[in-house]
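Subgroup meeting minutes
Present: P.N., E.W., G.H.
Scribe: E.W.

1. P.N. recapped why we're keeping a running log of single-chain structure predictions: easier to compare across weeks, and new members can see raw inputs and outputs side by side.
2. G.H. added today's entry (445 aa).
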Amino acid sequence: MLKLSLLIPLIFIFTNCNNSAKMETYLGVNSKEITQARDELLHTWYPKILDTKDGGYVTNFEYDWQESTDQTKMLVTQARGLWTAAKAAQVYPEEPMFRQAADHGYKFLIEKMWDHERTGFKQYVDDPQNDELHYKMTYGNAFALYALAEYAKINQTQPVKEWVQKSFDWMETHAHDPIHLGYFNLIINKPSKADPNYDEVTSQLGWGSTDWKDQNSSIHIMEALTTTYQVLPTAQTKARLEEMLLLVRDKMVNPAGHLHLFFTKDWQPINHADSNRTYIMEHLNFDHVSFGHDIETAYLLIEAAEVLYGKVDDLTLPIAKKLVDHSVEHGFDEDYYGLFDRGYRFEKNGPIEIVRRDKVWWAQAEAWHTFSLMHEYFPEETIYQQGFEKMWTYIQTELMDKTHGGWYAAGLDENPESKTRRKAHQWKGAYHDGRALIQVANRMQ
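Output recorded in log:
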């Protein structure tokens, strides 16, 4: 029999070995792989995207990270670049480069993207349609607010807080609906509805009617208000955050477990299910099941509730779970090998058919990190850990560019041409995949 004096050190060694083994993996994935992927991704984008000549961030890069000949400066891209830099500055406080990148993006946003004549952030720095319609998009302005609020966490000076307030006030004054609540997305300031070209020009913007409200804008307004309330905790920001949480949760989520995409101003969903298949397919942009947005919204609902109430409430968590479970049931390829882009239920009691098989990078990122979040709340349900582990395999195999760095725009199994397509463009920055890797790395700790 071992003496007690010998047994205690052995117990200590055994316990520490077990703890060490646990630290090496997270939900079945090598922990070092995750932190390494986070570090490589963020250092691939920054400081490369800083435009030291014209300000802001470079938008377009080819597959091998050579700058494209054409460049656009869109509000959403610039705001996401600022948000990601500000977030990275918190991850790497010892690296001044990320704080400098955030300062750089902030300066461009408030000096070049803000419309100093008509107020509000412009969708593009140079935008002929803005000159014709004097329009703004709440979607883009929400991302600007989101970025400024995140930046205020690393730069707590009064001018930055004033810009957060100023951005919030613009949305409150120009986009908020005091009657039916929520926000309109297309804000047309020029009274030109009598112009026969008015509808044609507004339709080219691609966001439906000016009288509609939409899911995509709404979830990102809620996202922006969640961060805004953290740095600007006023009664008004709290009221708007709770308003958006309730609207997204109670009005936008279909009883079947997915989101409607567009709504009338009084929240009646735009639904083409009673139309023929040809009409549905021709108008798919305004009515389909977006699996990526459903899973992303689950995360954003939980985050909003946690910030608003201190913990996720008993009404919000089941809805978030329902959104994830619906996508698990209908949206994934076999054995979690990627999440498809779009589906549609053509018959009332029929199956949801996949109508777009692309596995876009952002949806895979949102699904992957949301699985880890759902596992925290429902550890007894194995589907979330399985999904997390197998989605990581998919991301590594089909999305990560091991030669040039970064992620492809879509999984190579469905879109092999993504290998030589642009690594960055006006709708593709480091926001989705960067956020996912940061969130998971934080949860591992």
